[in-house]
């Protein structure tokens, strides 16, 4: 506690604002537990940026922690691009303080002689990614905490290719930041270097989104959509993209259309959780809509609900949406003719069905660690290859490469194209998905996410993952474990034969068990929240669509059995 108290007292100098000092003095006198949580560690600038609870302290998002990261990034840019006119672009989402924090970040960049393009109002993360290359910038920043609760905010860094920073830049930037003290931050702005931007980038981004996501689907006049932005940024882009894509029957949930960092109508602004889409689903049932679309606050994640075989609205998960979007894009590319250099991509914890589909179409399949920055890196690393599309289980998808991150804007249009065309063909989004199960195998996934907050929570997560590794699972649902993939050691071992293979993916705290029948259990800590996540994937054959409900129930039961076996139920 003495070290924590000493750290807190360093924030009582005249460098820090009077209100900051007053709050710290109050915590020292009255709330040692809260003081400890705020100062027991530094808010880490991870491999993609920062995300955490807002407030005063080294373990919080505030003008000083973001200022220090920006100062370090400025030093790095000035070192790497010495002699060039360095430019960055900054966007921010709907969260409380995002606009003022974005302005602070812009001022620090400008104080370091760096030209800044600052969006006038909130914008989507995919537009920021697009703007980096559109404006020929060296880097980009978006102030967002994605789908986290209202008390969070964050800071994501993009590089010259429009993708998030990856090795070696991430480690080099972190080293620059860690070498600084808070007093090294230059807060005095050079206003002549800050240029506010607006519609000119919007129009270019929206035009590209429509070009990438519109396939002239039939039946648009007869296709009804309910859209909710969940109080976030997508209200600035998706309605216009859908309109330009030819969709006129779009009902916007007005109660959730106004940007609001408190997210007053939902428990969590995360389209992965069914509650977030409940208001939109209810409206869809009332008006007989065909599809519900909802996005997270910065509009990189996309939630979809469609009518199931019983005519009821059902939310499809990220794996299901990814599979059908990829299938559609592959089919469209096949109609044009494959050139032989195409690839699709996903992550190591997403459905193996993507690989099965790639094999069926004869295109290359690439897999990465969790996080879209790795998919963006693939595009940069293999310029001779043609990225068709790809996604991850956490409700993210990217169409082509004009954006280099999850893009709910273009993906919304693509999903509507698929569903509208399917309906015109006498099918549906849901029925087309079931046909994929017949064609490529019926894969069913389940995610268990366990939250452990604070200092003790971080230790619990560490211990859970350690136990999972040191007490190996020998069988799952009656099938022997065949492969253990340890991404910390970069070794995949066949425990039945002793064979070992190198894993050609950057090291990460991920462990995956795969059984003889293809069942996969993956465990990893969340990179953005105090959570440990377990991913379960099962599969079987589906001979015909008529067997769907029966086989789905069998896989659901298998997943329940696995959860009980692993004490995750």
TrEMBL record:
**Which GO molecular function terms does the record list?**
magnesium ion binding; phosphoglucomutase activity; phosphopentomutase activity
Q: Which CDD domains match?
A: PGM2 (cd05799)
Would the keyword Isomerase be found if you checked this record's keyword annotation? yes
EC number(s) reported in the record: 5.4.2.2
Leading EC class? isomerase
Concerning PROSITE patterns, the annotation shows: PGM_PMM
Q: Which UniProt keywords apply?
A: Isomerase, Magnesium, Metal-binding, Phosphoprotein
| Recorded superkingdom | Bacteria
Q: Which Gene3D superfamilies match?
A: Alpha-D-Glucose-1,6-Bisphosphate, subunit A, domain 3, Alpha-D-phosphohexomutase, C-terminal domain
UniProt entry tagged with the keyword Disulfide bond: no
What is its cofactor? Mg(2+)
Q: Which InterPro entries match?
A: A-D-PHexomutase_a/b/a-I, A-D-PHexomutase_a/b/a-I/II/III, A-D-PHexomutase_a/b/a-II, A-D-PHexomutase_a/b/a-III, A-D-PHexomutase_C_sf, A-D-PHexomutase_CS, Alpha-D-phosphohexomutase_SF
The GO biological-process annotations, alphabetized, read as: carbohydrate metabolic process; purine ribonucleoside salvage
> Residues in domain Alpha-D-phosphohexomutase alpha/beta/alpha?
43-180, 211-305, 317-437
Please report which protein family the annotation says this sequence is part of.
Answer: Belongs to the phosphohexose mutase family.
What is this protein's name?
A: Phosphoglucomutase
